[in-house]
Amino acid sequence: MKKSIFRFALLTLLAVSLVYACAPAAEIETAPTSLASTYLSIEYSDAANVRSQLAYGSLKLADSPNTITLEQAKTMIPLWQAVISLSGDTTTATEELTAVQDQITAAMTADQLQAIAEMKITNTGLNEFYAQYGITLPTPIPGVTKVPGSGSGKTEEEKAAALATKTALGETTGTGQAAKTLLFEKTIEYLTVVSGQ
What we know:
This protein is mainly α. It contains 9 helices and 2 strands; from the N terminus they run αααααααβαβα. It has a domain at about 35-120 and about 180-195. β1, α8 (about 155-170) and β2 (about 170-175) form a beta-alpha-beta unit. It is globular and about 50 Å long.
């Protein structure tokens, strides 16, 4: 009797092993790519990030055959507001911003996204946009790594004088949250006009 129980257990174990061996292999889960990156590339010289391309590109579509429609504007306003809110929160995960970015992308047509892709929006072009509002963003020099604390050789008086000069000229440096979200705020302003709100 013990032999037959042992044989039965062994045969059951072999049968279960065969079932698992013949089952299709589990698919390896890869990190999802953003919907926006399906249309927009950062693989060209001085390319702006995808989110900035979407925002600035939306502004540049004004008065073109691919302009944002009233319905699209109504859909996108709360999404861009969410981008601003999430951008200001240090606990925001990259995936959260990417999800909102993809919702913005989904609200646009393939023709609109193609038109933005063809613009090849660069950081230099964005710097010109920011300069119109008195904001200067630091431009990284290719191949040069910024040394933390490299500006620490200035005295407090020199730093205060430099800040006072920039303020008097109406310039803002690109380090504050307002500078980081200005493009998105201007996009919301434009969409608000389009939506008639």
